[in-house]
Hints:
The protein has 13 helices and 11 strands. The longest helix has 35 residues, at 337-371. The protein has 402 residues and is α+β, with helices and mostly antiparallel strands. It starts with a helix and ends with a helix. The strands form 2 sheets. Strands 1, 2, 5, 6, 7, 9 and 10 form a 7-stranded mixed sheet that branches. Strands 4-3-8-11 form a 4-stranded antiparallel sheet. The chain has helices at residues 3-21, 55-65, 69-81, 84-93, 95-105, 196-213, 215-226, 231-253, 261-286, 292-295, 305-329, 337-371, 373-400, and strands spanning 34-41, 47-54, 106-110, 113-114, 116-119, 124-128, 131-141, 149-153, 167-174, 177-183, 189-191.
Amino acid sequence: MSQRVRRVIVGITAAVIAFLCLGQPALAHGFSSTVYVNVASGDEGRIRTKLELEYDLFVVSTADYEHDDALFKSGTAAFDAGDAKAQAAALDAHAKSAVAYVAKRFTVSSGGKACTPKQVGDFTMGQREGVPYADLALDWTCPEGGDDHQVHSGLFPDSEGYVKGVKTIVTYDVDGRSGSAALDAEHPSFSISQTWYERFWEFFRLGAEHLLTGIDHILFLLALIAGSRRPREIVLAATSFTLAHSVTFMLAALGVVDVPSRIVEPVIALSIAVVAGWHLWRIWRRRDHATDLETAGGGHFSLDRAGWSRLGVVFCFGLVHGLGFAGALGIQAAWSWTLLWSLLVFNVGIETVQLAIIAIVFPLLILLRRRSPAAGLWTTGVISAGVAAMGLVWFVQRAFGL
């Protein structure tokens, strides 16, 4: 293969990796936030909502947009001190501003007419994945005669400039209807009377979007593709990864397993580097015979010892990736069939995008390898090198909080 062709392959592959990584934060699941809402029937025909909002984001946004500098000072001081009682006290002292901020961006309506909110009790504090969350209970008085309740959430929009892509996860049990919904900027509202397929489509879309916007998971998948020589290898690797992350995803999302994100995120980054580096090590070990990796044969489902070892590594790292997927959704509630099916649909959305990427990229790689094993080797080597480098950079950033 000529030097010119090699340069073109290296340039194109490097450009693709750079494009994927352009502007991506060190924490693929950071720089965003998730709001959790429970909607239930209240007393005297009211609707009771309990909102859980990330504390520091809530304080900063409220102080800024309600022009309450005193809340910013007392709220951030309590946050820096890690004092939950002081955090709740800061919000209680500025409840008018805090409730006003929420009421302008989160609404409940009935029959197309707005319901009126009133705070119930004081603010309380909790945690999600080790992050302080403020709990706010509101009772909504709705016009008589309305039996179709709509929930709208525009909390912490991108336009405020603090976070991007905020999601609101809603669980509800109102008037004999129960279920869950996922809201974001493109889909900010839902009706409690929505059909089951509308509800599940929201979680399918959420899962698909999460994988598409989670650059670390895409790079991990590219590393799997680059290191797989034949269809059976990528099928077995993808299946192993799917089974592993599905198990921990379900357990973590249901609250059975709880691993802090400060541990999960660095290990995810390390997994990217290890899987990509595995292929580079095999190329280095074979040196002059490295192109044999592009043309090796075997039975339909046979793997050599290195292949089975790689499969085991992929499975172990898949367990960790499942914790990352669950952290993105962040549902921690009592077990229910409705919640279980929502989680399953979220996972199906992830798998659909994963299979689509494999179906597009892997056949192109097979074609290149058959036409020119040397070109295939250079392409997979450059991809693996770029992915491994990004994985190591992310690992350092996440492990040391850089």
